[in-house]
Design goal:
Helix content is 31%, strand content 22%. It contains 8 helices and 11 strands. The protein is globular, with a radius of gyration of 16 Å.
């Protein structure tokens, strides 16, 4: 199961995670945290730990993918019921995700029953392409490609304000893009169980149709 958030900082964000936790197996739930970049003071990790306590879930393991990378720590993260992919610079996160073969590890994690929560950049790297993030100016000098991990078959655009400027640009992009494009404002997101996709909050499938929060578009996996 995969939850893709625009953010987790608004009053509406918890609705998606209410549904996620209702479908995660019963008993204690452990969450492992993969940082988009080093978080030496654990500021963002501690914020998420407080957030997940709302569902009596324990954020128990932290890992970063850069110089502080530890294979043993990654193993512990992947033993949790949920893996959290943090927000940040999408291009930087993508570069290090490729270096650490994160796509392979996350795919295996999903196939063994794990759940993934992505927030902003953490949602974008799960898709076939991070081109939209790069167009927004998110760069990293060592990034070799705009290819994403391809764990979900659509592209995800967080923090969409649904202004005419924003949506015109996304429609132009979607016209040339082989993948569906979902635009999510803050507080909105997607929940995918590898069979159906449910939308929460204001989400637009960028082909000109704005969605209802309870609509199931059901793209093929």
């Amino acid at each position: 199961m995969i939850a893709q958030h625009s953010d987790q900082g608004t009053a509406d964000s918890g609705g998606l995670d209410d549904h996620l936790f209702a479908r995660v197996r019963s008993g204690p739930v452990r969450v492992g945290y993969i940082a988009s970049c080093p978080d030496p003071t654990r500021e963002y990790f501690n914020e998420r730990r407080d957030y997940y306590r709302r569902w009596n879930a324990d954020l128990v393991h932290y890992i970063e993918l850069e110089d502080g990378f530890d294979k043993k720590a990654l193993k512990k993260v992947l033993e949790c019921e949920i893996v959290h992919l943090s927000g940040g610079n999408t291009a930087r996160f993508m570069h290090w995700a490729v270096r650490r073969d994160l796509g392979h590890h996350l795919s295996r994690f999903l196939h063994t029953g794990g759940a993934i929560v992505g927030v902003s950049a953490g949602s974008m790297i799960l898709t076939p392409s991070i081109r939209l993030a790069i167009q927004d100016g998110e760069m990293f000098p060592d990034l070799e490609s705009d290819t994403g991990l391809g764990i979900v078959p659509w592209e995800f655009y967080p923090h969409a304000d649904h202004s005419s400027t924003c949506m015109t640009r996304l429609q132009s992009y979607a016209h040339l893009c082989p993948n569906p494009v979902y635009a999510c404002e803050d507080g909105a997101g997607l929940l995918y169980d590898c069979e159906t996709l449910k939308m929460f909050g204001r989400v637009t499938l960028v082909d000109g149709s704005e969605t209802d929060p309870n609509r199931f578009p059901g793209p093929d996996p």
